[in-house]
Amino acid sequence: MSLADSETRDFYTITELTREFGVSTRTIRFYEDEGLIHPVRRGRTRLFRPAERRLLSFILRGKRLGFSIAEIREIMLMYKEPPGEAGQLRLLIARVSEKRDELAQKRRDIEETLSELDSVEEASLARLAELGVGA
User: How far apart are CA 63 and CA 131, in angstroms?
Assistant: First the structure.
C-alpha cells in the first residue's frame, strides 16, 4: 500500500494493520491498553484512523530501536504538550544518543567476552596438547 493510498482511507481494521505491520492483534490491543493508540469502536470492532496507523508505525519503530513503552509514551506525549514538536525532537535526539551509548557499551562487553572465550579455548587446547589428548 502506498502512502497516498494510506492517507486517503478513513479507517483500517485491526486485521489490515496486523498484516501490514507483521504484528499480532494482541500487540495492537496491548498498545491500545497502554493508551498509545485510540481506535474508534463500532460495537466490538476496532477501526483505526490514519493517525493511529502512523502512531502504530512510530511505536513499532521505537520498539525495533530498543525503546521501552515508557520511553515511547514520553516522546509521544511531548508532541501533544509544551514544548511540542521541537521538544519532542530534542527528547528523541537525547534518547537516540542514550541508546547508541548503551549499544556501544554492549558491543564492547561482547568483544571482551569473545576475547575471554578465545583465551579460555586456547588455554584448554594447549593443556589438552600437553596431556597428549586430542581435542
Answer: 51
Whether the model pTM is above 0.90: no
Same domain, yes or no, for 52 and 3?
Answer: yes
Measure the CA–CA gap between 18 and 24, rounded to whole angstroms. Answer: 6
Identify the three-state secondary structure at position 1.
Answer: coil
pLDDT band per the 50, 70, 90 thresholds, residue 85: confident
pLDDT of residue 135: 66
* pLDDT over threshold 70, residue 112: yes
* Total domains present in the chain: 2
Q: Are residues 130 and 85 in the same domain?
A: yes
